[in-house]
């Protein structure tokens, strides 16, 4: 213990023991050593005291950024209503009920200056469409030359392109617009690969991409698109796109398949359903596949057949209903049945003057 306390002796004092009185000298030595600071002259492990740096205080005069201020609602000047999906919803069809309360906005409580109606966040004021068209024309600038288009296509059309966005069954979603703008910060164009239900109507997908993002599609091959940002695009002045914090529950729409099809009786509807289930499938659709030629194949089949069956095994019940809704409007046709991931479509009643085969069948049924 004495050795630990007197790690380095003082140069001014030397402590010695008295041989005649060893115990008394040792007690005095311990009392003197404990009373004095052993690390007074050269402390071996004493920490270096650092003066704390003054904290930087934010100036009170600086106005907070509305994008980073959670207490203020975000304001966006985009001239359209915000919805989860733009290409896979029809605003003309009104829902009959909601699975969640319309007061819960997917943008967060008080984070957006637009009211959520359950399906869209509506624009609060009228939009000057002429001004919007002029601004979009200014950003796009002069049309690209053929050499410029070829250079951009060669750069972004390959599957290993780093600037790629995959589009699923949700179609052109709202958060996808923010992803496009983020790619446009460092690239002139972005490659979009479409899969699933949206590929049934690629024209609709292209329209909403150009209309909602303000860009221009310069390349389209089956399900691959290249969206160009424009000559005068400024990343620092990009539009404000609030992000949806969660996917809203889809509302409840009117029933797609009726018990009795329009223009038929109950027995006639049942007979067509049985005929479709017992017929050979026209096509077999895969999950997240490319359906760009399905509409043309069905239209061609309806020239000779009255009922068509689509085999949608492993596609999913929800995707089957989405496919049926799109085919009803695109072909057009009447969905008769969704059973065991099988879609039964009826072409509907046609004019007998245009379809002589229908006339022959009606005569045969009347004779029977």
From TrEMBL:
InterPro entries: CAF1P_plant (IPR044599), RNA-binding_CRM (IPR001890), YhbY-like_sf (IPR035920)
Gene source species: Pyrus ussuriensis x Pyrus communis
GO CC annotation: ribonucleoprotein complex
Lineage: Eukaryota, Viridiplantae, Streptophyta, Embryophyta, Tracheophyta
Record domain CRM: where: 142-240, 262-358
Record keyword Transmembrane present: no
Stretches for region Disordered: 36-79
Domain of life assignment: Eukaryota
Assigned keywords, A-Z: mRNA processing, mRNA splicing, Repeat, Ribonucleoprotein, RNA-binding, Transit peptide
GO MF annotations in UniProt: RNA binding
This protein's name: CRS2-associated factor 2
Compositional bias segments (type: Basic and acidic residues): 58-75
